[in-house]
Amino acid sequence: MANDRAATATKPPALTFGKTEREDHPWEIQLVRHPDRAESAQFRAAKDVTHKILREMGRTELPYGPGPYEMHHGGSLWVKTSGGWRMYRARVGIEWSMQFCADPAKVDRLRQEAADLVAAFPDTLPALDALGYKRARKLLETPITDAKGVAAWTDSLFNACVPLTTGNHQGILPKAAGEHHYPWPVKGADYIRYDDFNLWVTLPDGTHAGVAPVAARGSGDGHLRIVHARHGTPAGDALAKAQRRRQMAVLPPDSPMALEAFHQQIAPGARSASGRPRARGGHGATRRTG
After folding, report:
1. Is this model's pTM higher than 0.70 or not?
2. What is the structure's pLDDT at 20?
3. Non-local CB neighbours of 192 within 8 Å, separated by 6+ positions
4. 225 DSSP β-pair partners
5. Are 289 and 266 in contact (CB under 8 A)?
6. Are the C-beta atoms of 240 and 226 separated by less than 8 Å?
7. CA atoms in the 13 A half-sphere facing the CB of 92
8. How confident is the model at residue 38 (pLDDT cuts 50, 70, 90)?
9. Which residue ranges make up each domain of the chain?
10. Which end of the chain is more exposed for a tag (fewer CB within 10 A), N or C?
11. Is the pLDDT at 174 greater than 50, yes or no?
12. Cross-strand partners of 176
């Protein structure tokens, strides 16, 4: 009887026809005009020296391809090596808006890690001095203890100058997948994938998913693994379920998504992404799905 009473007590009330039901605390969001954001002197100096560095680099050495660039606050650790300029990613990048929740002690750890890296490349600071970025040494040597120090680091060469195109920076599919909107473990593949593999495909509900082959190139296997899908969509729910079970969410090779991902690698009109290799035009290379 106790269980019956509990069930009765928690049973939702019956709806009355014509009655309006609403939450006591409705969800609300306001879209407001972004306040004008003046560029700090730190950011102007960092951008200026980054463009000078990029002009010194060969086309194949550019970290994310040719511009035009927007500077992404993504943890940009620039160093001068024996082979020229190189950019490494910091353990964490601080987006401009996130500085206002940043703990100075944690940001100071990023400073220390950057200083350790730069110390391993002793040509870096003299080269930055020569390019007019004379504040680098002070930035690396000054402990970060307050909001002012966090702000200076956030807009510095060692955080604010990952050179990306507009699409790679803030783009939205279907045009481009920007780092601000798509998870880095998936988005990062945009910079290392084969040019004839489509990382992003359109799902039946009109949303987009990040995908990857399940086997090495040349295997002939056209199955496709979903590695990112929008939360709350059928594909997103399936991916979450697969991850909870330590499994993969895999699309068959004859699915429209697999055909889209591999369409540059398979014969025109093919009904499956699996199959025999075919010769690619232009360069005479023999390619195969995977």
Report:
1. yes
2. 46
3. none
4. 212, 250
5. yes
6. no
7. 16
8. confident
9. 41-164, 183-287
10. N
11. yes
12. none
